[in-house]
Structures are given as structure tokens and as C-alpha cells.
Amino acid sequence: MVKARISSIQLFLLFIGFLYGSTVIVNSALGAKNDAWLAILLGGTVGGLLVGVYVSVAYLNPSKTLVEILKERLGNVMGNIISIMYVWYFIHLAALVFRNFGEFIIVVTYQETPISIVIAIFAAIMVYAVNSGVEVIGRLSELFVPVLPFTVLIICMAVITTHDFTAFSPILENGIKPVLKAAFSFITFPFGESVAFLMLFPHLNKKENLKKIAVLSIISMIALSLLLFFRDIIVLGSEVIYQATFVPHLTELLFPGISVEQLVDINLLIGGEVKVSICIYAAVRALSQVAGIDDYRNLTTAITTFCVVLSLWIYENVLEMLNWAEKVWPYYSIFFQIIVPLLLLFLSFIKKNKSSKSTSSNAISSS
Amino acid sequence: MIIILAVFLILVLYDLQMFIREKAQIRVYIIYGFLMTVSLVVSLLIVAGKRPASPAQWIEALFKTAGVIK
Does the residue A1 lie in any domain? Predict the structure, then answer.
């Protein structure tokens, strides 16, 4: 039985913070160069449908977390095995965001500070947030996430004087293939990653608002991504944004007169905080449900410590990280983001149809 | 290396006293012990300059073997 509750607005802001997360520094759609806006629109639409699958799974299994749904639909053994794989996936995702965050901070802001120190300090805050519960994470998002669109708008307005609107043309110069590839990357990162929300949906106080929240979040995310892309391309041009490691940092360096670097740091801190806290919360809750542990807080420190070590272990340098995120991550995520949720949706539909048929036949026989 | 050992010692001692006070289940000790041991061993290996092959490399090798990526 879930006791902690979050409001619709808190879930909406958590969704925005999560989707925006590390997208502020690593935009997977940029692989399509000047056609990235097409990839964002296409990937965003299909990504929205994917989030719709997660929402439908949550609707068909009310008040149940991902682990409980897996156990109920696939049986205890298979359910537990796939749940453990999801625990790994959430830990891996948290480690990736930690590393993105750490790399950006040490490359851009604190060049002399070791990455382990930056990530460890960030992790200590995450442990506190996750141990305080989902309600506190929700309230934090209510407080900080509204800052995100404002900072994006401020940076966009500052760039008004530096622009080249011909940077978008010619459209589809390299054909449709790079656009489809970038769109696929954009589906798996960030939309598909929101499968972690299946551990959070049972906490929503008004379940009937779930669809509305998901639709609004997706539209807002697509709008924010387009805004970021247009800002970057009119300042830098398509070739530079394709080759740059941290595109927003390069954009802000070209601003005449003012320094808005801190605004990107703020964006990353808020988005990263929301994303990592949700991933760690999902991993800890899932593991404690699999192992039958009463209080999930007992495992928070261990899992966060493992995430920190994994984030330092997993890649040797920033280029390896970006290369892996672009080439391997989309295929690695298919099982967790598409196959299992679709299977759960299918099984939930069958179960629902069976139960509705048996109810109607009982009603007929009793009458 | 000493700093890493000290950090892990502080973390474990802090959590251990909480587990004893709250009479945590035996499973908590097992999972906690496993995760902290793996984290400590990997950290020490990284610090010693003997970084083991990472899970990202295992996953990439798996996909290459399966022919999913080139």
C-alpha cells in the first residue's frame, strides 16, 4: 500500500525536470545536424506514444509499481529476474547522468576540481532527497523546475542580436536516414527513460489526471527542445553544433558582453537533480520490493555509492561517454523501454478483457 | 587509497548503527554488503590504475557479437 502522495502539478514538474535532465548538455537529436528540428518533432511524437504505453500500463494496473506489475503478469520467477534487470537499468541511467553532470562541471566551471568530488557532493544531496521520500522530491521539483523555462528564455533572448536564420537550409540535404536515426535516439533518450516513472505513478493522488500530465509534459519537452535547438543553430551553425562536445556552453561563450554560463549550470543542476533522484528512487524501491525489504531507505546509501563508483568506472573519458550514448544506448534501451512495456500492456489488456467477460457472464447467469 | 577506505568506513559505520538500531532484516545486510564490497573493490582498482573492463564495454561487446552494432 502506497502512502506517500504527490500532486498532479508535482508529477508534471517531475516529468519536465526528468525529460529535460541532461538533454541540456547532450541533445541526442543533434546527429541530424540542421535537420535536428525534424528529428525532434518526429522523435517527440513517437516518444509521446511510448510514454502513452507506460501511462496505459499504469491505468490498467492501478496503484501497482513496475515490480508488482511484472510479478503479477509474468509470474514470480520471471518477474523477479526482469525486475532485477530494471534495477540495473535505473542504476546505469543514474550513473550516466552523474557522469554527464560531472564531466560538464569539470570541463566548463570547475576545471581544477576532481570529477569524483563533484559527483560525490551531488550524490550526497541525492541520498538526502531519496531518503526524505517521494513527497519531498515532488516539493523540490515544485520549487526548482519552474526556473528551467525561465533560464532557457533568458538565454534565448540574450542571443537575439547574434543570428543566422539560413543555418536551417537546405532541408534534408543528407536524406531522411540521419533524421530517422536521430529521431530514434531522441525517442530512447529522454522519452523512453521515463519508464522509471512506472515506480512513481502509484504515488499520484488524482490518477485520472495522469494522461493529461503526460501529454502536457511531452508537448512542453518538445517545445523546449526545439527552442534550445533553434537557439544553438542560429548562433553556431549546423557543422559546429554537430562537432561540439557541450553545445550550450559554446553558444553562451559567443554572447556579446554578458556571461550566462551560470544559467546553464543552474539548468543542469535542477534537471540532473530531478533525473538522478528519480532513477535512484526507482532503483531502490524496485530492489527493496524484489528482496522483500520493508524500508527502502536502508539501501539508498549503498545504491547511490554504487552509482557514483559506476559513473567513474563506466567510461574512461567524455568522448567515450558521448560515443556510447549515441551508438550503443538506443539499442541497449530497446528491451527496457519498448519490448517489456509493450508486453506488459498486451498482457494487461488480455487480463482486463478476461475479467470483464467473466463479470458480464456472471451478471447474465445471476439474472 | 586511504581516503577511499576512510570514506567507505564512515558510510558503513553510519549505516550499520542505523541497521542495528532498527533491527534490519538479514537481506538488508546481504544486499548492502554486496553493493558496498563491489563499490569498494572497483574504487580501489581504479585508484591503483588497474581499471577493470567496464559494464559499458561488456554491453558493447555483446551487441557487436550479436551484430546489432558495427
Answer: no
| Predicted structure pTM score | 0.93
Count how many domains chain A has.
1
Q: Where are the alpha helices (DSSP H) in A199-260?
A: 210-236, 238-243, 247-253
Q: Which residues contact A242 (CB under 8 A, 6 or more apart)?
A: A30, A31, A33
Do residues A174 and A314 make contact, with C-beta atoms less than 8 angstroms apart?
A: no
State the total domains in chain B. 1
Please tell me which residue of chain B has the smallest CA distance to A298: B28
Which of the residue ranges A7-21, A99-113, B28-42, B43-57 would you say has the lowest mean pLDDT? Answer: A99-113
Instruction: For residue A145, give the C-alpha cell.
Output: 523546475
Q: What is the CATH number of the domain that holds A280?
A: 1.20.1740.10
- pLDDT means per 10 residues in chain A (367 residues)? 81 93 77 87 95 95 94 95 97 93 87 93 94 93 91 79 73 87 90 94 91 94 90 82 78 71 82 94 96 93 96 89 85 94 95 80 68
Q: How far is CA A329 from the centre of its chain?
A: 13
**Domain assignment of residue B31, given as a range:** 2-66
Q: Cell numbers 550513473 label which residue?
A: A95
Q: What is residue A1's predicted lDDT score, i.e. its pLDDT?
A: 47
Whether residues B28 and A309 touch (CB distance < 8 A) is answered with no
**How much is the CA Rg of chain A, to the nearest whole Å?**
21
Question: Which domain, by its residues, includes A205?
Answer: 8-323
For residue A75, give the C-alpha cell.
509470474
Chain A residues whose beta carbon lies within 8 Å of the beta carbon of residue B18: 298
Identify which of B15, B19, B54 has the shortest CB distance to residue A314.
B54
Nearest residue, CB atoms, B56 vs list A305, A315, A331: A315
Instruction: Examine residue A157 and state whether it is found in any structural domain, yes or no.
Output: yes
Three-state secondary structure readout of A21-40: HHHHCCCHHHHHHHHHHHHH
Q: Is the dihedral of CA A27, A28, A30, A35 positive or negative?
A: negative
Cα(A169)–Cα(A177) distance, rounded to whole angstroms?
Answer: 17
Q: Is residue A266 part of a domain?
A: yes
Q: Which residues of B touch A84 (CB under 8 A)?
A: none
Return d(Cα B69, Cα A307) in angstroms, integer.
Answer: 26
What is the value of ipTM here, to two decimals? 0.96
E strands, chain B, where? none
Q: What is the DSSP letter of A169?
A: P
In a domain, A146, yes or no: yes
Rounded distance between C-alpha atoms, residue A285 and residue A277, angstroms:
12
d(C-alpha A38, C-alpha A321), whole Å: 25
* Beta carbons within 8 Å of A157's beta carbon, 6+ residues apart: none
